[in-house]
Amino acid sequence: MWCVVWKITDRSNFQSTWKGEVKRAEMVTKQAEVLNKSGIHARPASVLVNEAKRFQSRITIQNLNRTNMKSVNAKSMVMVLSLEATQGTNVAISAEGTDEREAVDALIELINNGINE
To answer: How much is the pTM?
Structure first.
């Protein structure tokens, strides 16, 4: 007989197996280069954040050109602007949750298309 007790406030990031074990779901990550001549300034950041907010998954973005830069919340305008992503900056988009693959694909496509600029 198996008995598993856990307290998880957000179960979308976990998967349970038949034996009651809990394992973390895989995170999806893809990279892209910022093509916008002005980089990700207020207007494209707003477009990016609004697109990220359409998804339930936890989504982060990281400036790969800055070694000391950690991933930030892609659903936060202030955090996205803090990346200081200029033209040619390599960024990584990561998502974890029920619609992680769709979220990453949509945001990468947006960046690859110049974020509508």
So the answer is: 0.77
Total structural domains in the chain?
1
Q: How many CA atoms lie within 13 A of 82 on its CB side?
A: 15
Find the catalytic residue in 41, 77, 81, 86.
41
What phi-psi label fits residue 20: left (phi over 0), alpha (psi between -120 and 50 degrees) or beta? left
Quote the DSSP letter at residue 42: H
Q: pLDDT tens digits for 58-97?
A: 999 999 999 888 999 999 999 999 999 999 999 999 999 9
How many other C-beta atoms can be found within 10 angstroms of the C-beta atom of residue 42? 11
Q: Is the Cα torsion angle 35, 36, 37, 40 positive or negative in sign? A: negative
Kindly report the CATH number assigned to the domain that includes residue 46.
3.30.1340.10
Known catalytic membership, residue 41 = yes
**Residues of the domain holding 49:** 27-112
CA distance 88 to 115: 14
User: Is 1 inside a domain boundary?
Assistant: no
| Two structure tokens written together for 105 | 């694909």
